[in-house]
């Protein structure tokens, strides 16, 4: 434990480690996981004190009456035992969609009703922002099919596995006809906008689910070598982006943008596309491959499971009245 950590750090870090799914502990050494957890905690702790971060955030997402200090991460004590570390966020950086992200907890809600009560307590601390919901991550399922579930929404599943494990799995269907080519210019961004528009016309609620990425985002992926054109039988079929970073207790490759043109969707190519990507990744034994998938997207979850990934946690949200 870092001697410069505050007294409450041990509560968060011990809970974070002990709540990890057993499969994650089977994949990775304990010291490695604890190191990742400490790195994330240190980053969040810095955001409780960082004036430059707070001023920059307040300029990016200005809210009338909000002081820059209010954009810093906060420690909130719900009672004598339960604590959370929180941050105000804005979905797609839209100031009309403020929410509170719980980045650390030293407990897990025992029910959807308890999660609702927790959210109400936290929202009181953020009245200036009028948050619309509270978001938190948990490694165990919280919905039980009862009436209380109306208070809680299961937003995103986190699926992951070690890259080395996935590389040794059986090759999926269509593997031979799918290829990836690194994007060499940003013409790919125009194609992305066309595909996004296609998807949005088919599903008007997409705007509330998927944030449209910026040209700068694509430029960063291209410059890092993590932006690809998807080809099926040599024909352009879509776009794939990946990023290498830390996520919760993991370090490795996060699959970001998988956008297929209309004529190539729902044809069963997803597994082959991801397998081609996995084989391109230069990963050490302890690096993971992971993605965030809506629980409603059962096809994508099934694909990830077939490739060898496991569901290792979920993000939940509680609406604020």
From TrEMBL:
Query: What are the UniProt keywords, alphabetically?
Result: Transferase
Q: Which SUPFAM superfamilies would you find in this protein's record? A: Acyl-CoA N-acyltransferases (Nat)
Report domain N-acetyltransferase positions: 175-321
Instruction: Give one GO molecular function term.
Output: acyltransferase activity, transferring groups other than amino-acyl groups
Q: What is this protein called?
A: GCN5-related N-acetyltransferase
**Which source organism does the UniProt entry give?**
Chloroherpeton thalassium (strain ATCC 35110 / GB-78)
